Amino acid sequence: MQTVRKDIHNSEVPVLCQSCEARHQGICGALNGEQLLALSKATRRVRREPGEELIADAMPINAFSNVLRGVVKLTKVLEDGRQQVVGLQFAPDLLGRPFAAESRVTAEAASAVDLCVIPRPALESLMKDSAPLEHRVMMQALRELDEARDWMVTLGRKNAAEKVASFLFMIASHIDPTDETVASKFDLPLSRADIADFLGLTIETVSRQISKLKADGVIEIVNYRHITVPDLARLRVLCG
Amino acid sequence: MQTVRKDIHNSEVPVLCQSCEARHQGICGALNGEQLLALSKATRRVRREPGEELIADAMPINAFSNVLRGVVKLTKVLEDGRQQVVGLQFAPDLLGRPFAAESRVTAEAASAVDLCVIPRPALESLMKDSAPLEHRVMMQALRELDEARDWMVTLGRKNAAEKVASFLFMIASHIDPTDETVASKFDLPLSRADIADFLGLTIETVSRQISKLKADGVIEIVNYRHITVPDLARLRVLCG
DNA sequence: CGGTGGATTGAGAGCCGTCAACGGAGGTGG
DNA sequence: CCACCTCCGTTGACGGCTCTCAATCCACCG
């Protein structure tokens, strides 16, 4: 009977959720069929183009979003306009700061992005009832904290060459999470300006360091946005 | 009858916990008398002197600790020895990365520190049973993530003068969480070397910037470690 | 074909790191 | 009580890395 009941539950999974990455590795994996069905009635899928603002800094948070495709950049700006990228989010991350009245970052689509938008009350009431859901949200927060602290080392203690190598290595690892012994080819989800804001450098310095990596044969540049790394281990060494 | 029951519960609060800050603002505030009593049988209070290592990077985590007094610094090092402070923890923060096999930072006593050490199994089993406890742990993780991202802006986009001003302002705010309109006097919990590692600078640059703030009348230096700020708003402006 | 926005490359300046010398506080021993 | 040592912090001189400003290139598009 249990297996039959499980099959029934599976058939309850909303059509849109059935092939959704968030249901496997994302936060929706913590929900049973019934909860998923209820939640899916409140959500909607949207597409956002590069550069579109998803969440504004210091504004009330009305909704959270599962990132289903593309890359979202989280930024902060100083009063005089200096900007810093403080995080990148990939599928199936949850976008939005839980348990805060206002956002503390600006979230912007870095590439074309597909989102599953969850109204704030829907997610917060579900989190109150579902400890597994809250647990998944916490695990993501802890992972983001680890990543932020890793990046603080890069920002504070690495020189420009090491910073750019670290960025490329991080992107390659995210796109292609295989081991370090093979080659890798990928599209950069960020413009030179975004990369500079991520690394605490200027556009010109980023460009010079990328040119140097190309001249040294560490990377090959197909397009401005398309890069191949013949030897990931060699790039890894340059990260400092 | 309810009030009587409550009194009974209060009397169950372990003696050591009764005046403990962690029971009010820290994670123990999520526990009832019974849970607190059970937990207190597994914990022990210890004192650590400045410079003592509390948790080693890449080592298994055997225990968590409530910070009861003093300041703990979290650091990461590159292979060639370059060091970055990635976080500071004050009372009543919980020390230790939950739900990870190994620590990803080194934790070291920056000042004299009092800890309430909680064995790992004790806290993890309690978290499994108590959603409010897990919720508090998550709230701390989210707060630390906010702080880490704030600091990334300082590391990536501020010059040396703004970095040092930001550090002093952050310490003043932590020690003296009043509004910005008044004066503030406090002891620096970190040496010049630690401050440099926190700001991604050298000892010499930190020293020069502190001397400049003194020459400009923004701060007064009583001791190497003891500083007064006559006008916090003026310091705030210098943070960029 | 010219216009536009992003990326690259070059020249010069300025900020901060490096190296070095000096100073002051605290501890120890004669 | 003083001499001495050590550790930490300060100050100075100099050089290099990265920023700034500017020109140019390239891809894309009307």
Task: Tell me briefly what this model is.
By secondary structure, chain A is of the alpha+beta class. Chain A contains 9 helices and 11 strands.
- Report Rg of chain A: 20 Å
* Order of the strands making up the biggest sheet of chain A: 1-8-3-6
CATH architecture of the largest domain in chain A: Sandwich
Corresponding CATH superfamily of the largest domain in chain A = Jelly Rolls
- Any idea how many domains of chain A? 2
User: Structural class given helices, strands, pairing of chain A?
Assistant: alpha+beta
Biggest β-sheet description of chain A: 4 strands, antiparallel
Counting copies of identical and different chains, the oligomeric state is homodimer
Uncertain segments of chain A: 1-8
Q: What is the CATH level 1 assignment of the largest domain in chain A?
A: Mainly Beta
Q: Strand share of the residues of chain A?
A: 15-25%
Q: What is the general shape of chain A?
A: globular
Mean pLDDT of chain A: 92
- Secondary-structure element order of chain A, as H and E? HHHEEEEEEEEHHHEHHEEH
* Helical content band of chain A: 40-55%
Give the CATH topology of the largest domain in chain A. Answer: Jelly Rolls
Which chains have the largest interface? A-B, 41 and 40 residues
Compute the number of strand runs of chain A: 11
Number of helices of chain A: 9
Keywords (chains A, B): DNA-binding, Transcription, Transcription regulation
GO molecular function, one term (chains A, B): DNA-binding transcription factor activity
Protein name (chains A, B): Transcriptional regulator
InterPro entries (chains A, B): cNMP-bd_dom (IPR000595), cNMP-bd_dom_sf (IPR018490), Env_Response_Regulators (IPR050397), HTH_CRP (IPR012318), RmlC-like_jellyroll (IPR014710), Tscrpt_reg_HTH_Crp-type_CS (IPR018335), WH-like_DNA-bd_sf (IPR036388), WH_DNA-bd_sf (IPR036390)
